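tool_log.txt
---
The assistant was asked to compare two proteins side by side. It first ran the structure predictor on the initial sequence, then on the second. Raw inputs and outputs are pasted verbatim so the downstream comparison step can read them without reformatting.
(1)
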Amino acid sequence: MKSSILHRIFILSFFLFVSNCARFTDENTVVLRLDGDDWGIYFNDNPDILNSEFNANNLDITTVPSNFRNINKSYRGSIWVRKNFEITTEQHQKSLALQLGKIYQSDEVFINGVLIGKNNSAFGKDPDEFAFGRPRIYPIPHDLLLEGENVLIVKVNSSLSTSAGIITGPIRIVTYEEALNGNLYDSLVELIFVGFYLFIALFFFINFFNLRDKKEYLSFSILALIFSGYELSKNEVRFFLINQFAILKFIEYSFLLILPYGFIKFIQDFFELKPFKYQRLYLLTQFFFIAVFAIIHNPVFWYNFIGYWDIHLLAVIGYAIYVTFLKFRDQARGSTIHLLALVYLLYSILKEILIERGYLNSPSSLETSFLVYLVLMTLALRFQFLMMKRKLQNRYERLKEADSLREKIFYYMDAMISGPLKSMKEKLISFRESTQKTKDKNLVKEVIEVQSSIDNVMDDIIELSRLEVLKEVPFKEQVNFISFINEVIPEDDITYSIKVNPETEIHNSLDLINSVVVRLVDFPPFKEFNHNDLIITQDLKGNVHFRFLLFHSNPKVSQRLFSDLVENYNTLTPVKVKWAIILEIVRLLGAKIDFKIIKKKYLKIDLGIAAIVPISELQPIKESKTSTPTTTNKTGKEDWRVTLKRIWKFLKETEIKIPNFKKKK
C-alpha cells in the first residue's frame, strides 16, 4: 500500500515538474542568431577562403544547420562554410561565446580569420581526437570582434559515411554564461528522464519478485533499465565523470545494440507470444557486434556501422505493430494503448534517422516518445494488475460465499436434523436389539417417516442457505405481468382475482417471483384456514400487490399464526424455515411484506413488488377531493423498453393525412 502511494506521488510530482520546468532564455543574453539559409559553402582543401581578399560572391548558398554530405556525396575533403554578421556597440561590451550544435566529425572555427576553437577545444590548444555529435561552445576574445560587420568561417572534416557538417542547432552568439547554463540545463532535464526510467525499472523489478508469474514485469524493467543506460551514456554530464569519448561511446552503442531485443522480448511477454524462429540468433548477433566494436577501437567505424544498422529498427517496430494489430483484432487487453504508443515511437525513430542524416532540421523527439511509451505501458501493466486483483477479489468473494453457505447449512442441519437423527438412531438400536421373532412393523414405519421428514427439511435448509448468501438476484427479465402471473398461480389451490392494468410489466427475477407466490399459496399453516383468497391489485405508483386474505372461524388460529409470522424464535421448526425462505426471497426481490389482523378472524398478508406501467395508463383515485395533480404524477421510473413500446403504439395509432398538391382542373 505504501509503495503504491509513493509511486503515485512520484508520478504526479514528476509531471508537475516537467510541465513547469520549461526554461525561457532571456532575450538580452541572445545576441545574434546565425542559423538560416544565407551561408556560403566551399568544397576545397585550400584555406584561401580565410584570406581577406577572398571573393565570397563566388560561393554557393546553403542552409545551416544541415548535412553537407547531401550536397556533394562523393566529396571527402575539407568543407568550409562562411557567414557575415554584425555586432552593435552594446553587444560588443559583453563577454560573448559562439554556440554551435552537434558537428560531424571535426571542426575548426574562425572569426575574422582567427582560430577560436578546434574540435571542442577553445583556441585549438588541446583538441579532442573524437568529439563528433557533441555541442560546441567557443568563447570569443573581446578584442577579436569588431563593432559592425564580422566574418564567421567554420571548417568541417568528416570521414563518416552519412554525416558531415553542423547537423543540429542552436547556432548563435550569446553571452558565455548563457551558453554554459543552456547546455547544463538540457543535460539536467535529460537526467530527470533517466531517473524516471530507473524508477520504472526498479518499481517493476520489485513487483516481479512478488508476482513471479508476471514475466512482462521483468522484461519491462530490463527494457527501462537498458534505455536509461543508453540515455545516461549520451548525456553531456558523463564527461564530468570520465573524460574518455571512446569508452563512453562504446557503452552508448552497446546499450543501443541490445535495446531492440529487450523491446521485442517485452512485447512477447506482454502479449504471451512465443519467440520467433531465429530470435536467439538475433541476440547473439547483437553481442557479436559489441565484441567487434571492442576489438576495432575506432569510434568512426562504430558510427558508420550504426548508420546502416539503425535502418533495421523500422523492421523491429514493424514486427511490434504487426503482432499488436493482431492482438487488437482479438480485443486483447492493452493492445489499443500499445498500438498508439508504437505509432508515436515509429514516427520518432523515422524523424531521428532523418535528423542524423541531415534531411530534417528539427528537435529530436526520441526521448519524449520513449518516455510516452514507458508511461503508457506502465499504465497498461498497472491496469492489468488491477484487473487481475479484481478477479482474485471476485474469486475470494465467491469462496467466502461458499464458506458462508457451508456454515449456514451446518448450522441449520444441527438445529433441524440432529433431533430427528437422534430419534432415528434410538429406534434403529431398539429395532436391532429386539429379541422378538416378529419385529415391530410400526417401528420400521416410524423410522421411514423420520427419514422422509429429514429429506424434506434438507431441501428447505439448502434453499434457505443459498438465498441468505446471495446479495442480489443473478439476472432480471422484463415481461407483461398479466400473462406471467396467470401461469404462476396454481388455480386449483386458491381463489384469486387480478385488478391490474393490462399494460403493466414487471422487471425482476421471474424465477423468484414465481417461487415466492407458489410458496405463499402452499404455505402449510395456510391450509388450516377455511378460506384463502388472493387479490392482485395495483397502487398509484404502479406497484403490484399480492393481498392474501385468510379466514378462520376460530380467532385464536388467526392470532397464533400472526404471532408466528412476526415473532422471532430461538428454536427452528420446519415451518419456520419455510417462512424464512419466503422472507429471503422478498429481500432479494426488493419487495415489502406486511401482516395485519382484521376483525380478529381475518389475517391479511400484503406482498408488494415494483412494477412498470405507462404514465398515461395510470388513473388517479377519486375518493378524496383534496388530492392534487401532483399526487397522480408520483409514478415509478418508466423502463426504456416500455417507453419505446408506448411511442411505437402511439405512432401506429396516429393517422397522418398527406395534403393533395395536384392542381384542380
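(2)
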Amino acid sequence: MKSNDEKQKLPYVERDISWMYFNQRILLEAANPEVPLLERLTFLGIYSNNLDEFFRVRVATLNRIIEYDDKNIRKEQEIASQTLKQIGKLHNRYYQQFEETFAKIMEELKQENIFVIKETEMTPKQQEFITSFYRSKLNGSTNPVLLNNSRPLDDQNDENIYLATRLIRKDTEGKIREKDYAVIELPTGDFGRFIQLPDVDGKTYLMFLDDVIRYCLPLIFVGMKYTDYEAYTFKFTKDAEMEIDSDLRTGVLQKISKGVKSRKKGEPIRFVYDQQMPKDLLKKLITRLNIDKNDTRVAGGRYHNFKDLMKFPDCNRKNLKYPVWPPIFKPELNGAESLLTLIRHKDRSLHYPFHSFDSFIRILREAAISKEVKSIKIALYRLAKDSKVVKALICAAKNGKKVTVVIELLARFDEASNIYWSKRMQDAGIHVIFGVEGLKIHSKLVHIASRHGDIACISTGNFHEGNARMYTDYTIMTAHRQIVKEVNEVFNFIEKPYTPVKFRELLVSPNDMRKRVIALINKEIKNKKQGKDAYILAKVNHITDRTLIEKLYEASTAGIQIDLLVRGNCSLVTGIPGVSENIHINGIIDRYLEHSRIFIFSNGGEEKYYIGSADWMPRNLDNRIEVLVPVYNKEIQADLKQIIYYDLQDTVKGHIVDGSGENLPWKDIYPTLSEKQVDETKISLFRSQEELYKEYKKNTE
C-alpha cells in the first residue's frame, strides 16, 4: 500500500496540459498530406474553435485562481501559475505550426486552381465586382467604432473577428495632419468569412472578408477626406464566467467561485493580433480592451479566428473532401414491424454515425403515436437547431402522452438554445425539469412506459441529430426489467434528489459509480493474483481523475494488461517501469470525433461490459448525474469488443498517448509499413473508422 506522499509522486500530467497535447493531435491531422485538402482546412478550424473555448473556460479558471487573494490556496495558485506558463509555451509553439500548416495548404490550393487572394492581388474586373458587392450588399453592415475616446470595448462579442484601422490625413506635401483609429466588426454572420469571386478560365477565386473590407475602406469612410488607410485583423477571447470546474478540492472551489463576482464581466484573457500592427494602434487596443500582464498575447499573422475555416466553401470540388459514407440502416430496424416490439424481444443497438440516427427518431415517433404508450421520459443535454427529437416529444404530448423532459440549462455554450426549446416544450404541455442544483445532468437516458412492457434507451452521446452525424456514439435499447426500472429511478432521483435510492444494475454518479468502478479494477487485481484471466479494455474521452489513475497504476504493477482509447485529456503516463509498463493508450483523430464510452473487464473469464455517458474525470464521477449500463446481449458485446479491437489496431489515425506530448502517429513509428503486414512489427496499416464502416455495410448486404 503506497503512502500519501508516494501517491503524490506518481506521474500525473496536469489536465490543462494534457488538453493542449490533445488539441495538437487535431493540428497534426490538418498537417497530414494524406487527408483531403479541404478537410485539412476543417481540422484547422476545429483546432482554432477548441482553443477559443479552452481559453474562455480553462485558462479563465487558472487566471481566477492566481488572482484570488487567499493564502490558504497558495499550493493551487503555484500549480495554476506553472500550468499557465507551460500553456503559454505550448500555445506559442503550436501557433507556429498552425501558421506553417495554413500557409502550406494555401499553396496546395493554388495547385488545385483554388486561389485565396488579397485585396492587392485583384484584377480590374475583380475590383469592380468587390466594389459592386460592397454597394449592393455590404454597405450598412460595416459600422466603425472610433477609438478616439476612452470608452472601453467591453461590449464586443469575442465570437467575432475585427479589423483595427489607422486612418491618416496628409496634406499636399505629404505631412500627416490628422490620425484617427477605429475598430470594425466583420459581418461574418451575414456574409460568411469567405467571399467567392467569379471564376476565370476554370480557376476559383476567394477572398477573406477581412481583405474585402480592407479594399472598401475608402467607401466606408467616404467624405472623411483620409488619404491613407491601414487595417489589421485582431481577435480576443473573453472569460466566459462559467462555474469553475470541479477538479479543485471543495474548499478551493467555493472560495474561487465567490471570487468570480469581483472579476469584471467578460474580461478578455487572450489577445491575438497581426504582428504588423503599428505600435500606436496596438497600444490603443490594449488599453481599450483592458488587457493585463496575466493575459495571453499572441503576435500572429494577417488572419485570425480560423474557426471559420470549418465553413470554407467546397468550391464544387468533392474530390478534395472525404468520400461520402451514407449512414447505414440496420435491416432489423428498418422493416415494417414495431420497433418497440422488436426491443421487447431482444436488446438492440445503434452505433452512430455509421448507423442512421433516424432509427432512434423512429422509436420516439412510434412512441408518440402508439396507443399502448403511456409516458415518455428523456434526459437532454444538447439539442440540434431544428430538433427532430423535440418535435417527436411535442407530438407525443399533443397525443395525450405524459412527457417529461430533463434538460440541462448549463450545457456549456448551448444555454440559449436549450432555454428556447424548453419554452417550446412547456408551451406544448411537456413537463420540463431543469435538473438538480449543484449537479449537472449529463446522462443520456430515455424511458418509455407501455401497457405491453416498458423499454429504456441508454446512450454515450447526446440525442442530437447533428452530433450523430459527426460523433461516434453508441445507444442501447433494452426491455431488461431491472435496467428499465432503474432508468426510471434515475428520473425519480432527478425530480426528488433527496430520496434515497440504491442501484443494482446501473452505475450512477454521484451515487456510487466511483466506488463500483474501483471495485471492478480491484476484482481484476485480485483475479490476477489468483492466476485468473485479468485485463481491462476501455474507451473514453478523458482520464484525469487521480484516484482512478492511481488504481490503474496499481493494476499495471500487478501485471494486468490495460488497453485504453483516449481521445482528449489524459493525465496518465504510460511506459514507466514498475508503474505503468502494462498500460497502452491509442488516441484516434479522424473524420468522426471519437465520443463513445465503452468499458470491458475480464472478470476472470466472464467478461463484464458497460457503456454510458461518464468519462474518468472528477466532474463526471462526483459532480454530475452520469449513468453506465451493463450490456448482457452477446451480439452487442461482440460488437463492442470489435469496436475496441479495431480502435486499438488503428495505426493510420492513431497517436501514441504516453504523457510526453509528442503525439507520435503509430504509422510514423513504423516507416517501413506498407499495406501488407510487416513481420517485424506484426502491425499493418489499419484505419478503424473506415474498417468499421465497411464491416457494418457488409452486414446489410
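---
observation on (2): Confidence is low (pLDDT under 50) at residues 242-264, 671-681. The first helix runs from residue 4 to 9.
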